[in-house]
Structures are given as structure tokens and as C-alpha cells.
């Protein structure tokens, strides 16, 4: 039956720069993504987030649609440059007021707000001032921004997430070999400097946790959201399971991001591989980074197959065959078991089975088309989501502490360097008219929520 626990959180997720638009309104100043997307050749078709889904003006109708969907939990992000337009200094109350209106509207419909305090949109002013994440100062300015937000919105919001996907706004935004694909798109001199950016982000997370708890007027919950690189055993033989656990340390940036955040130390295996490229860590940094968390958010879309190998690592990462099925992104290979293994790695590989886990993003881009009757029949997305929810259910049925699921994304939006060419939503957005069309997957997900099971 694939039934979920009665207290399971069903939700959907979005991010500020991807949906809000109104990029010059309400006192907002540019983020690095405004600058990056306005630079020729950086984003497909020259698309920018200037208008996006115009959610800034249309949030009431969008929230009404969320209520029709039946979600009781909505994850969104707050734009730093709406709150502190220059990145540091004066607070822009008009920006705060927008989020007050949004949250009040959500609560009218019985939807609990889950706010991500940073989803990639660094203030351009801080990029100009000191190179944003290249500087330790960024962590302290971030903490001041967090204090400003939580002081003003903490009476309305009690579920906070510090940062979204550290690997993406550090290792995909800075690179020592070529121009990186994400804003600010900065080429650095060495790999060590790239690793230093993610260390500064971890520091921001730790200081952010402290700031939230110090500023919140009521008891609240604090989480980190990470897109761990999930290692999946090619089959579940004891040897391959052990290999997947060993490989988890060095897959993506796991050993240098999720390990210090959840265990208080960089993975020794990762450090041994990095050698002199490892970041400089000051005394006390790891204590700041390793803050107690109320839960962990995992953004999981795909994974990497691993098997045991007769080499010095004891494992090998496997390339996928040419015909392997994928959704409408070059990296979006369909590995539904990645959700199960992602959750299991947190409990077992990292030894944090005490930590409640939420899938804070899972979904896919599909080649959606409006048919002659005005519908979007995205059965491919339904297939993808159904298999991933079954994998989530397996984790729960085996006793792993998964507490909720936020589908990415509530609606089509600005997909970073891919612009508007890739659609992840369960609501179709006609960008010319801003018309919203719930897709077949919207109806499917609504039924899952209604029946509290995978349908």
C-alpha cells in the first residue's frame, strides 16, 4: 500500500530568485544572479530572473493553488538583497513586509512556512566588496542578515533552514580550471581556494544556527539543507554495500561538507585525497560549524552506482551506459533508490540516526507541452516521482527517520544557467501570460497527499 505515517509532512518547494521576479521593486538590490544572468552567454537564451514567475505580485493566487494541492508545508527562500540590499548595514523593512504578507497568507490556508535563509542569491554588493564566499567575512555578514530576518519574522516562522546546497554555490560557482557555470562564475587560482569557499559557507551555517536561536522570539527548529552525492551499491551484496559506504566519503564534496556539518570533522579519507588542496581551518572553526540541528534537509534527484573493487580505495564509481534512462537534464539520471540510500548514509555512514531527515527537494525536468485541450499530461514526471516516493517509503519502513517530503518544484521557474528551457514544476507556467496550468502530476500528487500513500 505504500502508506506513510499519519504525521508525515507533505510539501512543495521553491526559491526566491527562481520565482519572485520584481528584481528592482520594494528596495531590492542586485544579487550575483542578477549580474550573472544579465551577462551575455552565461544563461541559455539570455534568460534572467527579472520577472521569473512574478510570484512577488501573484503570491496570493499561488498560495491558493498550494491549498488546492493539499500541501500543509511550503519551503521557500528569503532573498538576502530584499532584506539587506547592500548585503550588510541597513535593513529594508519593505522587503521584510513582503515575506510577512506571504507567510500570513500561507497561514490563512493552514500551510506551515519553512524558510530557507540562503538559496544561492548572494548580494552583488558583497561580491564587489570582497568576492563574497572567497572571504571569511561573508559568514559574519550572513549571520547579521539572519539575525535581522529572524528577529522580524520569528513570530511567524518557526522552521528555519540556514543554507541550500553548499556544493552548488561554492564548487559550481568557483573553479580553478575554467569559468564555472553558476554565479558569480569566478575563476580562482587553485583548488584550495575553491575548497576555502565551501569552508566559509560551513562557517556561515554554524554562525547562522547560533544567530537563529539567539534571535528567535519563540522556540524554533533549525536545519541545514544539503544535496549530498548519493552512492548506491550496484547490488546489495555485503561487499557492495560496504563499498558504497566507503565511497560516500569521497563522492562529490561529501567528505568536506556534510561530514564537518554533522560530525564536527572533515572526513579523513577526503583530507588524504585533497592533500595540500584542503582548506585552511582556523582553531574553533569546526566547533562553530558543528552546531546541533533539529533536522537535516536532503535534496536528492539522482545518484552514483558503486561496486567493490580490488584497488587501494576498495571501491569504484561506475559510469552509466549510453542508453541509461534520464529526465530532461544531462545529469538527471533515474536512480530512485538514491533517496533510500541517501537517508541510510546519514544514519549509518555518518552515524547520525538520531537526526530527523526531510527530503527537501526531489523532482525532475520533463519536456512538458500543453496539448490541444490545454492540458499538460506529464506521465513521465509521475513515473519518476512515484518511484522516488516508493524509495522514501522503503526508508521509513526500515526504521530510518524520514519525516517529510517537499516536491521540487511547486511550479516551473528560472532554472539557473538553463533559464526557462527546463521545467521542474507540477504547475505549468506560461511565461508570456503568467498563466498557471496544474499538470497531470499536480493531480497525482494531490491524490498521494489525500490518501497519505503512493498512488
What does the model show?
This protein is α/β, with parallel strands linked by helices and 455 residues long. It has helices at residues 16-19, 32-37, 55-69, 80-83, 93-108, 124-130, 137-153, 166-170, 191-215, 238-248, 254-263, 268-274, 285-289, 337-349, 379-397, 440-451; strands at 9-13, 73-77, 112-116, 159-164, 174-175, 186-187, 221-226, 231-233, 295-299, 304-308, 315-317, 357-361, 402-408, 427-430, 435-438. Helix 15 (379-397) links the parallel strand 12 and strand 13 (402-408). Helix 3 (55-69) runs parallel beside helix 5 (93-108).
Overall shape: it is: globular
Query: Cα distance, first to last residue?
Result: 8 Å
Give the number of DSSP strands.
15
Q: What helical percentage do the residues reach? A: 25-40%
Radius of gyration of CA atoms, rounded to a whole number: 21 Å
Please state roughly what percent of the residues sit in beta strands, choosing from under 5%, 5-15%, 15-25%, 25-35%, 35-45% or over 45%: 5-15%
Instruction: Please tell me the overall pLDDT.
Output: 98
- Ranges where pLDDT stays below 50 over 5 or more residues in a row are none
Please summarize the sheet with the most strands.
Answer: 8 strands, parallel, barrel
Task: Output the structural class.
Answer: alpha/beta
Assembly state: single chain
For the biggest β-sheet, the strand order reads: 1-2-3-4-7-9-12-13
What is the tally of helical segments?
16
Keyphrases for this structure?
single chain; 455 residues; alpha/beta; eight-stranded parallel beta barrel; three-stranded mixed beta sheet; 16 helices; globular
Amino acid at each position: 500500500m505504500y502508506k506513510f505515517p499519519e504525521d508525515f509532512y507533505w510539501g512543495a518547494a521553491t526559491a526566491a530568485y527562481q520565482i519572485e521576479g520584481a528584481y528592482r521593486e520594494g528596495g531590492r538590490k542586485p544579487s550575483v544572479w542578477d549580474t550573472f544572468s544579465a551577462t551575455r552567454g552565461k544563461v541559455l537564451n539570455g534568460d534572467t530572473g527579472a520577472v521569473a514567475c512574478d510570484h512577488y505580485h501573484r503570491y496570493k493566487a499561488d498560495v491558493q493553488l498550494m491549498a488546492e494541492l493539499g500541501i500543509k508545508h511550503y519551503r521557500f527562500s528569503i532573498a538576502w538583497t530584499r532584506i539587506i540590499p547592500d548585503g550588510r548595514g541597513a535593513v529594508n523593512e519593505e522587503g521584510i513586509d513582503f515575506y510577512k504578507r506571504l507567510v500570513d497568507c500561507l497561514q490563512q490556508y493552514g500551510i506551515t512556512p519553512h524558510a530557507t535563509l540562503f538559496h544561492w542569491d548572494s548580494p552583488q554588493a558583497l561580491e564587489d566588496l570582497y568576492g563574497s564566499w572567497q572571504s571569511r567575512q561573508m559568514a559574519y555578514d550572513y549571520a547579521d542578515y539572519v539575525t535581522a530576518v529572524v528577529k522580524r519574522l520569528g513570530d511567524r516562522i518557526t522552521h528555519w533552514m540556514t543554507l541550500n546546497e553548499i556544493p552548488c554555490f561554492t564548487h559550481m560557482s568557483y573553479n580553478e580550471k575554467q569559468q564555472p557555470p553558476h554565479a558569480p562564475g569566478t575563476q580562482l587560482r587553485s583548488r584550495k581556494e575553491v575548497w576555502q569557499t565551501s569552508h566559509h559557507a560551513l562557517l556561515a551555517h554554524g554562525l547562522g544556527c547560533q544567530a537563529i536561536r539567539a534571535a528567535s522570539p519563540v522556540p524554533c527548529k533549525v536545519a541545514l539543507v544539503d544535496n549530498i552525492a548519493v552512492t548506491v551499491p550496484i547490488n546489495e551484496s555485503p561487499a557492495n554495500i560496504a563499498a558504497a559506504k566507503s565511497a560516500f566519503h569521497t563522492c562529490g564534496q561529501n567528505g568536506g561538507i556534510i561530514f564537518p556539518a554533522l560530525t564536527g570533522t572533515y572526513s579523513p579519507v577526503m583530507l588524504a585525497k585533497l592533500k595540500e588542496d584542503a582548506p585552511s581551518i582556523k582553531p574553533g572553526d569546526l566547533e562553530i560549524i558543528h552546531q546541533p540541528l533539529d533536522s537535516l534537509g536532503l535534496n536528492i534527484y539522482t545518484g552514483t552506482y558503486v561496486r567493490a573493487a580490488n584497488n587501494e580505495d576498495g571501491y569504484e564509481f561506475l559510469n552509466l551506459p549510453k542508453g541509461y534512462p534520464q529526465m530532461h537534464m544531462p545529469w538527471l539520471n533515474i536512480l530512485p533508490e538514491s533517496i533510500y540510500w541517501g537517508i541510510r548514509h546519514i544514519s549509518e555512514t555518518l552515524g547520525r540516526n538520531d537526526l530527523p531527515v526531510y527530503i527537501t527537494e526531489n523532482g525532475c525536468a520533463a519536456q512538458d507541452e500543453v496539448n490541444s485541450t490545454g492540458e499538460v499530461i506529464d506521465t513521465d514526471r509521475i513515473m519518476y516521482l512515484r518511484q522516488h516516493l516508493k524509495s522514501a517509503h522503503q526508508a521509513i519502513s526500515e526504521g530510518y527517520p524520514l519525516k517529510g517530503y517537499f516536491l521540487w518544484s511547486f511550479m516551473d521557474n528560472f532554472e539557473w544557467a538553463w533559464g526557462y528551457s527546463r521545467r521542474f514544476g507540477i504547475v505549468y507556467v506560461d511565461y508570456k501570460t503568467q498563466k498557471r496550468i496544474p499538470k497531470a502530476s499536480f493531480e497525482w500528487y494531490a491524490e498521494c497527499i489525500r490518501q497519505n500513500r503512493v498512488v
